# Entry
Amino acid sequence: MKEKGLKKKKASILSVSPYQRRKESEMIKIVKEINSGMIAKRAACIKYGLNRNTLAHFIREYSVRNLGDELSDQLLSNMTAGQQSIAVEKKVKALTKALELARLKIDGLETMIKVAEEDLHIKIRKKRGTKQSKE
# Structure
């Protein structure tokens, strides 16, 4: 007789040792696959036997901002043409957003300098011809 309330657990290849320490190269590979669009976050969790919070930590630590493009050529060579175009579109969107945020930050800082100089009479900008003191 089978019990009705029990469900079978799916056996995963990595479920044998789910608490194993990952190598940095493996973590970078996982993050690159996610950022390039080859695999979704949930699918990566299942494929590599990771917790979603652990994966989020990997993404924060090894995101595209912090890494160079050393693995991007390898990943692009493994992708189909459709996946490559999606990856390029994602990269363009991310870079456009980063550029807009940088411009917004610059505008805010310039406004702060202007207010400090005009209203508070604090000299922040350096005059062009002045030399630094030798102290």
Notes: Residues 81-118 form the longest helix (38 residues). The chain is about 55% helix and 0% strand.
